[in-house]
């Protein structure tokens, strides 16, 4: 993984476009009221075909430049690309003495843009739920901003900006030969996260080991594209059951590790979750 990212320090300008006005934020319907207590700390902005929100505590000329040109970290000469595929791309950047990750959501074609009209932006969803998880005690990425592009009135690409996590290891790197204490701690963190999500009628939507990072401070849940706030406990029960199934399937078939699979099953059952038969 890249350790340094393309710096925006050389892009400093004397005037920036985003509005300085602090406003009430419109959140995704499935995250309604999620950030109601935090709206005073969130600013809305618009520049040309771009719009979005950012946390006011991160306000700086360099952040505002990034909001105007969110693709800059992918284009600078010393770009540090963490990932790039047909759906998403991630780049590391730095400004104001910190490192940040910019996650870009690509759009395949006009039909994809049309579908986006009826869906919540994945960038916006990440932004809304990342802070919500922190509020309920589930460590997650620290959101900074999200940006939405519109072309001919339709949603196009979007970007999610969050603080870079240092010295992380994906839980997917674990094997049956890994330190048993590390395995047990990772599985405990995963199970605890599911318990807290269930209690708050939330589901992750893609609960697999690559989306749980092990850090010095503990496990961090990432990739909140499909996270949902459910209206009823029954809806949540069904969604959490899918999260449990996805986690178990990884260790049983995607990356078979029989011992980790058995430990996962036992821990999840002890926490009250129904585990699909092997």
Q: Layout of SSEs?
A:
Elements lengths: L5 E2 L34 E6 L2 E6 L5 H8 L3 H4 L4 E5 L3 E8 L2 E8 L4 H7 L5 H14 L7 E9 L2 E10 L5 E2 L9 H20 L2 E2 L8 E4 L2 E4 L6 E2 L3 H22 L3 H13 L8
Parallel strand pairs: 1-5
Antiparallel strand pairs: 2-3, 3-7, 4-5, 5-6, 6-8, 7-8, 9-11, 10-13, 11-12
Features:
3-stranded antiparallel sheet, 2 domains, globular, 7 helices, 278 residues, Transferase(Phosphotransferase), domain 1, alpha+beta, single chain
Task: Walk me through this protein's architecture.
There is one protein chain. Strands 1, 2, 3, 4, 5, 6, 7 and 8 form an eight-stranded mixed beta sheet that branches. Strands 9-11-12 form a three-stranded antiparallel beta sheet, covered by helices on one side. The chain folds into two domains: 158 residues, no CATH class; 102 residues, Orthogonal Bundle (Transferase(Phosphotransferase), domain 1), CATH 1.10.510. The chain has seven helices and 13 strands. With 278 residues, the chain is of the alpha+beta class.
């Amino acid at each position: 993984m890249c350790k340094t990212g393309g710096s925006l320090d050389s892009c400093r300008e004397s005037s920036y476009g985003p509005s300085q006005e602090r406003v009430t934020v419109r959140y995704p319907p499935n995250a309604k009221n999620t950030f109601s207590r935090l709206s005073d700390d969130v600013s809305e902005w618009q520049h040309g075909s771009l719009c979005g929100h950012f946390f006011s505590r991160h306000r700086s000329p360099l952040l505002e430049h990034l909001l105007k040109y969110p693709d800059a970290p992918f284009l600078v000469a010393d770009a540090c690309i963490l990932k790039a595929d047909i759906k998403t791309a991630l780049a590391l950047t730095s400004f104001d003495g910190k490192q940040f990750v910019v996650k870009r959501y690509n759009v395949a074609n006009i039909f994809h843009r049309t579908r986006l009209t009826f869906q919540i932006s994945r960038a916006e969803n990440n932004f809304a739920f990342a802070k919500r998880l922190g509020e309920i005690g589930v460590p997650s990425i620290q959101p900074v901003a999200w940006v939405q592009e519109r072309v001919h009135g339709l949603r196009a690409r979007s970007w999610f900006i969050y603080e870079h996590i240092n010295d992380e290891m994906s839980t997917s790197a674990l094997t049956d030969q890994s330190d048993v204490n590390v395995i047990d701690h990772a599985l405990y963190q995963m199970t605890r996260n599911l318990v807290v999500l269930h209690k708050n009628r939330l589901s992750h939507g893609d609960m697999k080991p690559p989306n749980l990072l092990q850090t010095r401070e503990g496990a961090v849940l990432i990739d909140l594209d499909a996270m949902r706030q459910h209206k009823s406990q029954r809806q949540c029960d069904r969604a959490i059951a899918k999260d449990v199934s996805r986690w178990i399937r990884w260790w049983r078939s995607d990356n078979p590790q029989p011992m980790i699979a058995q430990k996962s099953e036992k821990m999840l059952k002890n926490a009250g979750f129904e585990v699909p038969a092997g």
